[in-house]
Amino acid sequence: MCDHYMEIKEEKDSRWFNVEYVPQDYIFSQEDRPQNLDVPVCDSFPVIDLAKPIRPIEAILKASQEFGFFQVINHGVPEKTMIDAMNVLKEFFNMPSKEAIGYVPHAKGWIYTNNDHTKDGVYLWRENLKHLCHPLEECIQLWPDKPARYQDIIAAYLLEIQKLSLRILEMIGEGLGLEPGYFNDISEVQLLSSNFYPPCPDPSLTLGILAHQDPSFITLVYQGDSTGLQILKDGRWINVGAISDAFIVNIGNQMEVISNGKLRSIDHRVVTSTHETRSSIATFVNPSFDCVIEPAKVLVNESEPSHYKAIQYKEYVHHNNAFGDYTVALQNVIKLES
Ligand SMILES: O=C(O)CCC(=O)C(=O)O
Ligand SMILES: [Fe+2]
Q1: Ligand nearest to the CA of 265
Q2: How many domains does the structure of the chain reveal?
Q3: Nearest ligand, CA of residue 192?
Q4: Is 12 domain-assigned?
Q5: What is the C-alpha to C-alpha distance for residues 23 and 106, in angstroms, rounded to an integer?
Q6: Origin, by domain of life (predicted)?
Q7: Which end of the chain is more exposed for a tag (fewer CB within 10 A), N or C?
């Protein structure tokens, strides 16, 4: 008993982030570092109540234009479903034996890594798990089966995300003047990407995620009580505050295209903390891979010509390496499935 406890403790102590100094591989170049970490929480960050009797279409449109981001509260997703999902993911990231699984073969359909590097070869200060989610009943068998409840809990979470994302897409569509149901057949809750960002001895040198935009229609992030997410607003980084039962919604590149630039896909990143652990679950609501994405016809006219070229989503993903180092791996899973 005692030996077993010591073994687990030793394994935990030897995890990559239990260090006194930041290892060289995790130190970003001067220009990529977070620079000023002392930025305030933005108190004008849009928080939208979805339980209001009148649907908040205007507020969603305004937030999507001005911030490219908003938080939704009273969204109808049961708290238990959210907490269960967060807990099972925390359990996954905490499994000492996960290190033994190591770098999971891509063909299995999920990718776990604790040292995903950026284009310059510097590692992000995070662990990440990614897998496809659509069609749910086919993908579920390809997900991690440890912890034992993982598949059931995450499937229940994704069904709720599906409902909520369609509601949000419908309001965005209506706000843009698109026909009802515009996004129904062309969007899917396609990818889950969950993150565990442990405390870091020197947050001025590291990043949890480098500045990026999402290749989605919209992305929904559940972060519980965590902080660390920052967005670029008018050239300055601002912190997204924690509202424990909210979802953060952001406009992805593909929505920017559909809206012909009316809605904005905004740079965001995650900074690390000396004392806090951040856990987050990002779900990407993306176009179906075969879908051709271009500005919606009703938004293009003589005075407002198309600002974007039409491109099949599959091609976009491939050309832009949209899922980072794992783009090809994820595309291979798609090929295996179809
Ligand atoms: O909220 C986070 O931890 C970052 C998620 C994110 O930006 C992404 O996965 O694209
Ligand atoms: Fe993102």
Answers
A1: 2
A2: 1
A3: 1
A4: no
A5: 27
A6: Eukaryota
A7: N
Residue at 89 is within a domain: yes
Measure 39 CA to ligand 1 centroid, in angstroms: 19
Strands 127-132 and 187-197: antiparallel
Place of tokens 């579920």: 140
Ligand 1: which residue has its CA nearest to atom 2?
Answer: 280
Contact 48, 72 (CB under 8 A): yes
Q: What range does the domain containing 297 cover?
A: 19-337
Asked if residue 106 belongs to a domain, the reply is yes
Distance (Å, rounded) from C-alpha 228 to C-alpha 279? 10
The Å distance, Cα 184 to ligand 1 centre, comes to 24
CATH assignment at residue 190: 2.60.120.330
**Is residue 5 situated within a structural domain?**
no
Ramachandran area for residue 149 (φ above 0: left; ψ -120 to 50: alpha; else beta): alpha
Q: What are the pLDDT tens digits along the chain (338 aa)? A: 444 544 444 555 578 999 999 999 999 999 889 987 888 778 889 999 999 999 999 999 999 999 999 999 999 999 999 999 999 999 999 987 655 454 555 556 788 888 777 767 899 999 999 999 999 998 998 898 889 999 999 999 999 999 999 999 999 999 999 999 999 999 999 999 999 999 999 999 999 999 999 999 999 999 999 999 999 999 999 999 999 999 999 999 999 999 999 999 999 999 999 999 999 999 999 999 999 999 999 999 999 999 999 999 999 998 888 877 677 767 666 554 44
Q: Is 221 in the pocket of ligand 1 (CB under 6 A)?
A: yes
Instruction: State which amino acid sits at residue 178.
Output: L
